[in-house]
Amino acid sequence: MESTTEQQSPFARSPTLQTVLMVENYIKQHSGAYKKTELFNSLPRKVMWQTFQVIMEYLESIHKVAYDTESYVVYIWNPAFFEKVKNRPAIKI
After folding, report:
1. How does pLDDT run across 49-78, given as a tens digit for each residue?
2. Most distant CA pair in the chain: distance in Å?
3. What percentage of the chain reaches a pLDDT higher than 70?
4. What is the gyration radius of the CA atoms in the chain, in angstroms?
5. Burial status of residue 73 (CB atoms within 10 A of its CB: 0-12, 13-18, 19 or more)
6. Which of 6, 13, 23, 83 could form a disulfide with 50 if both were Cys (CB 3.0 to 4.6 A apart)?
């Protein structure tokens, strides 16, 4: 028989949309001010580390955040620029 830990859903660390948006907005407001662990510790609402990791991986994968040369988290999404270039033939969405 499997233990309770082994039976956990693969979604056990899946963040809610509200949590993803909270983290994203906080990064946007404090872009370049915190390294990853500092950011985690300063969030307005507590989040489990594993859940935070999932959110950060997601935001990195959709190119909304990046890390500078000193490992500070930087918000890089620019909707105005996206609107400007999205219809160019060289851009594939």
Report:
1. 999 999 999 999 999 999 999 999 999 998
2. 57
3. 84
4. 16
5. buried
6. 13
What is the topology classification, in CATH, of domain 17-85?
Arc Repressor Mutant, subunit A (1.10.10)
Nearest of 41, 53, 50, 55 to residue 12 by alpha carbon: 50
- CA dist 23 and 1 (Å) reads 38
Query: What pLDDT score does 92 carry?
Result: 66
Instruction: Tell me which amino acid residue 52 is.
Output: F
As given in the structure block, the two tokens for residue 71 are 């490992």
* Strands, E assignment, the chain: 65-67, 73-75
Number of H helices, E strands in the chain: 4, 2
Q: What is the mean pLDDT of residues 9-19?
A: 80
User: Nearest CA to 70 among 30, 41, 35?
Assistant: 35
